[in-house]
Amino acid sequence: MADAVASRSTGRWELGVHGASIHRAGEDDLDLAAEILEDAAAWVASLGMPAWEPGSFRAAEGGGRGRLAEALRTGDLYVARIGGRGVATVSLFEEDQRFWPGWPSDALYVHKLAVRRRDGGLGVGEAILRWAAAQATARGRRFLRLDCPRDDPGIRAYYERAGYVHRGDVTVGSFEAALYERPV
Q: 90: left (phi > 0), else alpha (psi -120 to 50), else beta?
């Protein structure tokens, strides 16, 4: 937790794996975050488990791009790098009325966690989840919450291995989501 608090002023945190660090995204990181998400969307779609609509993060008027731009505007978009190369992205929100309406304000919400396919298996995603837990603790929150595709057993198992507990399912638009939570 001390690292989470001390590093907040610099906007850069070490993740402890392969020299990776994470920082709050700037305007020049928006395209990088979109590229990482498009890479992840294409890979997941190739497995038959589409989570994000391919192209929606690159297209200027895409829904994914709009949500990324909003996360950037509110200071909630982050990019992880190894040796200056962008490898992952995540958004970390103080509230999520879209997927978690009516839940207490005792959590941070993880959204759009994505690691470039070529960097999969390095532990960057798990390190980002640990960093997010430290952020939640530093901000006085008791939980991390997230949603993922309800019908994707691989991603659900990933979060369950990381200590997340299934709290229910919800449909938002056409997206059928599983809701997960873990104490920090």
A: beta
Structural domain harbouring 104:
2-142
CB 150 within 8 A of CB 178: yes
Q: What is the pTM (predicted TM-score) of this model?
A: 0.92
Identify the CATH number of the domain in which residue 66 sits.
Answer: 3.40.630.30
Chain centroid to Cα 137, Å, comes to 17
Q: Mean pLDDT in runs of 10 for the chain (184 residues)?
A: 49 92 96 96 84 87 92 97 96 96 96 95 96 97 97 94 97 94 98
Instruction: Assign 3-state DSSP to the chain and report helix, strand, coil percentages, each to 5.
Output: 35, 30, 35
Residue 42 domain-assigned?
yes
Q: How many domains does the chain have?
A: 1
> What's the pLDDT score for residue 10?
66
- The two tokens of residue 90 are 């995540």
Helices (H) and strands (E) in the chain, counts: 5, 8
Is residue 162 included in any domain, yes or no?
no
Indicate whether 127 belongs to any domain: yes
